[in-house]
Amino acid sequence: MASLTVTGVRPWGGDPADLVLDGDRISDVRPAGSAPVEGERIDGAGLLALPGFVNAHAHVDKSWWGKPWVSYGGVASTEGRIAHERAEREALGIPSVELAETVLREFLRHGTTAARSHVDVDLGLGLRGIEIVRQAAERLGGAVEVEIVAFPQDGVLRRPGVLALLDEAAAAGASRIGGLDPAGIDRDPVGQLDRLFEIAERRGVGLDIHLHDGGELGAFQYELIADRTVRAGLQGKVTVSHGFALGEVPPARQAALLDRIAEAGISLATVAPVRKAPLPWTELSAREVPVGLGTDGIRDLWSPYGDGDILRIAFDFARLHGLRTDEELTAAVELATRRAGSFVGRVRHDLVPGCRADVVLVAAENVPDALLRAPVRALVIAGGRVVARDGKVLV
Fold first, then answer.
1. Are 125 and 96 in contact (CB under 8 A)?
2. Are residues 23 and 132 in the same domain?
3. What is the mean pLDDT of residues 182-204?
4. If you placed Cys at 269, which of 57, 88, 128, 321 could pair as Cys (CB 3.0 to 4.6 Å)?
5. Tens of pLDDT along 131-182?
């Protein structure tokens, strides 16, 4: 028997349907009222139904959310932000299980049921941050499934001992290890990437590399990453996060980079930042390069911005890339949902039988309307259980 049926919803704005959930899976999607309801029933009241949102790039270990306001300080550069965070985080109790749980609860309230979180691994913290994030996720009973990237925020080669910590994290179950501006931070792109790929290949994990370096310097590092991905046989397991350079190089150079990225099976994660060049969105879609959307840090020592709502990030992506038609606006929401499953280890993530029963209901006329208004999430179901209602977390 079905454990839960959500009746009379409109999946992706289509015709009214009943979603039948068995345990943590969707077992059937059928026309509304076409069969008797067995087990528990929730009236969907004609609301728009979307899959749970996927946050493809988060830092849930860094936030001061829930504490008194922390004013922005330090120098506004990558190096400056790193130094400021290292100097101030301990006084704020960052990281902690309580603060990480607060962030995950904000995710859940806004309908995010899966996230890839970069978690700082450095000589001061060791692997403590990873255990903290795992504990925070466990407190919510797995309502938000979290894939962990062991992230060397302070650099790799320039901090002896970090490579050993990344290797240890991979051995201990981190699904990916990270990197950071191989040229701009470590000033040795070949050295950093060779060592990161060696760990990934040996441990059988993926890579997710922050790449802020712009222009030709960033483009050169894209090439290095693509070459090593193919050489190591890691197609489909490597992500470049941020990757601003892709939108900053001339068209011919850009097209060649896109071909190499697609050939290497590299995915991209973006937070759609203001004042940055748009990604070549149409060309990425044509080459079927996976693109995921992320919140990045939320109210942390890098920036006071962020509220945990990935639908607002999809809105920012749409504005940055000049999306206007219904098809384009719907595609932006798809990047935050069904097109993002691979970022959290899911072969398929949608409102179809066999997928994890992650469902978000909103009062919206259609998908573009939901994107532009970002209404309160009327109901959030994660893994087959109701976890939030009318913007309030119930777990």
1. no
2. no
3. 98
4. 57
5. 999 999 999 999 999 999 999 999 999 999 999 999 999 999 999 999 999 9
Question: In sequence order, what are the beta bridge partners of 302?
Answer: none
- Burial label for 275, CB within 10 Å (0-12, 13-18, 19+), is exposed
Can you tell me which residue has the tokens 């038609």? 325
Encoded tokens for 32 = 């509304």
Asked if residue 179 and residue 282 are part of one domain, the reply reads: yes
| pLDDT tens-digit map of 99-118 | 999 999 999 999 999 999 99
Angle (deg, nearest 10), helices 189-203 and 215-232: 30
Half-sphere exposure at residue 299, Cβ-oriented, CA atoms within 13 angstroms: 17
* Contact status, residue 46 vs residue 374, Cβ threshold 8 Å: no
Q: Report the half-sphere exposure of 87 (CA within 13 A, side-chain side).
A: 10
- State CA 251 to chain mean position distance: 28
Q: How close are the terminal C-alpha atoms of the chain, in Å?
A: 25
What is the domain-level CATH number for residue 244?
A: 3.20.20.140
Only one residue has tokens 């890839």, namely 116
- Residues 150, 43, single domain; the answer is no
Q: Which of 387, 378, 392, 391 minimizes the C-alpha distance to 143?
A: 387
Q: What is the total count of domains within the chain?
A: 2
pLDDT digits (tens, 9 = 90+) for 84-101: 999 999 999 999 999 999
Short-list 262, 268, 270, 265, CA closest to 286 = 262
Do 177 and 246 fall within a single domain? yes
Whether 1 has a pLDDT exceeding 60, the answer reads no
Separation in Å, CA 113 to CA 31, 85, 107, 110, 211: 25, 28, 7, 9, 26
Cα separations (Å) of 232 from 56, 87, 224, 243?
Answer: 23, 37, 12, 21
Kindly tell me if the per-residue pLDDT of 2 is higher than 90.
Answer: no
CB atoms within 10 A of CB 378: 19
Q: Is the dihedral of CA 376, 313, 238, 171 positive or negative?
A: negative
